[in-house]
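Figure caption, in words: inputs first, then the predicted bound structure.
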Amino acid sequence: MTAPFLTVADVRLIEKQVKKILRAKSSSNDTKIINTVIGLAIEELRENLSVVNEEILKEVEHIEDNLNAELFIHSLKAYTIPFKAISDKSLQKLFKKDKKLKLPKLDLIDWQTISYLSWLDKGTNRQYIVLENEGDYTALRGVYEASTSNKGVCAICNQHSAVHLFTATVKGNGDHYTSYSNYICDDVLACNGNVTDYTKLEQFVSRNLS
Ligand SMILES: [Zn+2]
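Bound structure (zinc ion present):
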């Protein structure tokens, strides 16, 4: 058994390319067009995957239909490095200023499908975001503005979607506070599904922590 080598974002990127190929196959009978799309998809994977695995690229190249794609994406779970599961206790430690921290339902989370963990406390309008890197967690807390169907580009996944304003307030020198506001996806799971590299996510978090 090989040790997991794909990040969650890698799997999302593969999934995105597979969908592109399937779309081309269902909308065209022109082999030339389909092969061009496949070629571009493979190129994109070669350039952006954290680890290039020829077996996986070969499977992408030969994707036939939806069922085939679903089974293939599912099979990648065996090679996926999950977000290292966090406990209620550790979350309470991360956000120790919140005495009555509302916790997410951790047992419902599929750790192999998330690049970041986030949940809302509708009572206080707070949004919590947690990143994990080799067992180290970074915590971010902000206030969300429940929007009236705002559409925009999400600061985390860079997709155009339904978004809300997330504002984090950072303490600087002395009593000086600075607030940072960003639009991020309303739907955390969909957003996680769109994170195909960590650049934006890491930028977003460090911007709000500094
Ligand atoms: Zn997003």
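The pocket of zinc ion is lined by residues 154, 156-157, 159, 184-185, 191, 194 (CB under 6 Å).
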